Amino acid sequence: MSKRVQYQTQGTCSRLIEVVVSDDGVIEDIRFEGGCNGNLKGVCKLVTGRKAQEVRDMLKGITCGSKPTSCPDQLSRALDEVLS
Fold first, then answer.
1. Distance CA 79, CA 84 (A)
2. Distances in Å between the alpha carbon of 21 and those of 9, 31, 47, 54, 83?
3. Each residue of 32-68: pLDDT tens digit?
4. How far apart are CA 38 and CA 36, in angstroms?
5. 3-state SS string over 33-60?
6. CA dist 78 to 1, 16, 36, Å?
7. Is 79 exposed, middle or buried (0-12, 13-18, 19+ CB in 10 A)?
8. What is the Cα–Cα distance from 65 to 44, expressed in whole angstroms?
9. d(CA 28, CA 51)
10. For position 39, what pLDDT does the model report?
11. Over the Cα atoms of the chain, what is R_g?
């Protein structure tokens, strides 16, 4: 059975991330609400089918301009919730 999380983002243009991770830890589906449409479509395509733990570790700490976070960093935080 898959695990679905809706994560309210903080400090980014996107407002919400919905991610579905399979029992074996693979990202099955991901959707961002708001944010930079083209960039986030690319992020979704790149991470779908990959291990959630690998994606979390790769994206953690990425910033956007002068902001202390980014949409990819917020995705890593959403994946923290899925993996805990």
1. 8
2. 18, 12, 11, 13, 9
3. 999 999 999 999 999 999 999 999 999 999 999 999 9
4. 6
5. EECCHHHHHHHHHHHCCCEHHHHHHHHC
6. 18, 10, 18
7. buried
8. 21
9. 10
10. 95
11. 12
Q: Amino acid letter at 8? A: Q
pTM of structure: 0.95
Q: CA–CA separation, 74 vs 29, rounded Å?
A: 16
Question: What token pair was written down for 14?
Answer: 């996107």
- Report which of 51, 58, 59 is spatially closest to residue 82, judged by C-alpha positions: 51
Residue pair 31/47 in contact (Cβ under 8 Å)? The answer is no
